[in-house]
Amino acid sequence: MAEVSPELHALALKALTAWELKDPHLQPIGVSENASFRVDTPERRYVLRIHRPGYHTLAELESEHVWTDALLKAGVDVPVPARTREGREYVTLPFEGGERHIGMLEWVDGELLHNVIRRNPSDFARHFRAVGRIAAAIHNQASCWTVPDGFCRHRLDLEGLLEDNAFWGRFWNLPQMDKAQREVIASARRAIAEELFHLGYEPRTFSLIHADLHTHNLVVGEHGLHVIDFDDAGFGWHHYELAVALHRHYGEDRFGDIQAALVDGYREVRPLADSVVAMLPMFLLVRSLVHLAWRYQRPEHGTDLAEDIEEAVREARDWMS
Length: 321
Description:
The protein is an alpha+beta fold. It has two domains: 6-106, Phosphorylase Kinase, domain 1; 111-320, Aminoglycoside 3'-phosphotransferase, Chain: A, domain 2 (Alpha-Beta Complex). The chain has helices at 6-16, 58-73, 113-119, 124-143, 158-162, 179-199, 238-247, 255-269, 274-278, 280-296, 305-320, and strands at 25-31, 35-40, 45-50, 90-95, 98-106, 111-112, 155-156, 206-209, 218-221, 224-227, 234-237. Helix 4 crosses helix 8, helix 6 crosses helix 11 and helix 10 (280-296) packs antiparallel against helix 11 (305-320). It is globular, with a radius of gyration of 20 Å.
């Protein structure tokens, strides 16, 4: 996570005046997708986020809170926004020739699930069963929820993942790829597109999803798992949700046990067909491919794409074979 610049710190201080807070103290956390700050007051603690420019419109950010409010009412532990003096959930301020949307959420004490598992790796199965239950609860709510008028979020469907206006960009056309790599990725893209075309968009397997439900976005709190970071949330396949939860562990010796625990936990709450589980290798590849474009668009993370491209090519060859 990168450090917060003085300019962003000043913007956060300016935005903070929009909320009715007593003696707030602002402490930078860092910059990842968004610039984040901890806000301490005598009564409670918050996290203030300056959203990445150009990623979401204000309408999309407000729609995110419409959904998380519905999830909260359905029993899923998700972020709660703090409203400004004027009753809004965001303020928009000019910054560096453009504008930035800034929101604030109630802070939840706890520890990232990633750190909990790293400290006690032998207990991974229990934790991944809990992740599976969370994913199933999200899908239970989303699959039967009537999306309100004006609701606006992106779609991670065939077009949103694989076509020219893909949400995270054209992973098949990165300048770091050589000719042979492009050919493999292009072949995989065509094969995946055919599978997704036939998969369809039935509500039992396609709905709103968190779309970034890995162990860095789950906090182990007093009352169980708290889900954070809905930035990528949109309409997508449930298969993709599960693949994202598994992706960071792909290739580990215990990967089969991790997947089994995730699936078992999911099935405690919601039916999951064997046909969905059988498609997870393809969606793991989809995650690898779209993540290439995500990283390419974020050079500030300092990622060397060459190794990631080669790994994605290996995955594509294995899947197609």
